[in-house]
Design goal:
Blueprint lengths: L10 H8 E6 L2 E6 L15 H4 L7 H14 L6 H11 L7 E2 L3 H4 L4 E2 L6 H7 L11 H16 L10
Antiparallel strand pairs: 1-2, 3-4
Length: about 160
C-alpha cells in the first residue's frame, strides 16, 4: 500500500506489540511473540488517528461530518432537518449565492449550502471548522448553531430563516 495519507504507528508501539517481557528477579529477557492468541498478549488501544472517520466529499458526507461536530459542541439537529433545509436553500450547491433578496440588496448576499450571510456566519462559526462560508461543513455547522439559538434546532426551520 502507498504510504501517502496513511497514519503510521511509531516504532516504539511496534516494539511493544512484537515483544513480551519475561523476568525472574533482576534479569529481564525480551522474547518475540509469534502467534500469540491469548488475551494476555500485547494489546493496543485505538488512537484518535486510527479511529478518525473519513467522510465522503459530497452532501451526505458534509451533513454527517457536520452532525459529528455539532454533537461535540452540543448543537441540536438531525440529518433530515439539515437535508430538508439544504435542498430548499441551495439544492445542495455549496457555492450557491443569492444575489436577489434583501440581504443581497444590502450588500451581504447569502452563501453556501444553507445560505448564511457573512455576519451570521462570523457570529455563529463553530471552532474546529474552516472559517469559510463556502466550506460545506463550516456552513452547515454555523447555520445549525444559528438555528439552534434562534429556533431551538434546524429541525424547527421550515422556510427562509
Amino acid at each position: 500500500m502507498p504510504a501517502f495519507g496513511l497514519h503510521r504507528r511509531s516504532t516504539a508501539r511496534r516494539l511493544v506489540r512484537s515483544l513480551a517481557v519475561a523476568g525472574t528477579g533482576v534479569a529481564v529477557v525480551a522474547l518475540p511473540l509469534f502467534g500469540a492468541t491469548s488475551a494476555s498478549a500485547a494489546t493496543t488501544t485505538p488512537t484518535a488517528a486510527t479511529t478518525a472517520t473519513a467522510y465522503p466529499d459530497n452532501l451526505d458526507g458534509w451533513i454527517r461530518e457536520s452532525l459529528s461536530v455539532m454533537a461535540q459542541n452540543g448543537i441540536p439537529g438531525s440529518y433530515e432537518g439539515i437535508h430538508r433545509n439544504v435542498m430548499r436553500e441551495s439544492s445542495g450547491n455549496p457555492n450557491a449565492v443569492n444575489l436577489w433578496d434583501s440581504n443581497a440588496a444590502a450588500g451581504t448576499p447569502s452563501k453556501g449550502l444553507l445560505q448564511v450571510i457573512d455576519p451570521t456566519f462570523q457570529a455563529y462559526h463553530v471552532p474546529g471548522t474552516a472559517f469559510d462560508p463556502y466550506d460545506p461543513v463550516a456552513n452547515i455547522t454555523a447555520a445549525c448553531n444559528y438555528a439552534a439559538d434562534r429556533y431551538g434546532s434546524i429541525d424547527n426551520v421550515f422556510g427562509a430563516y
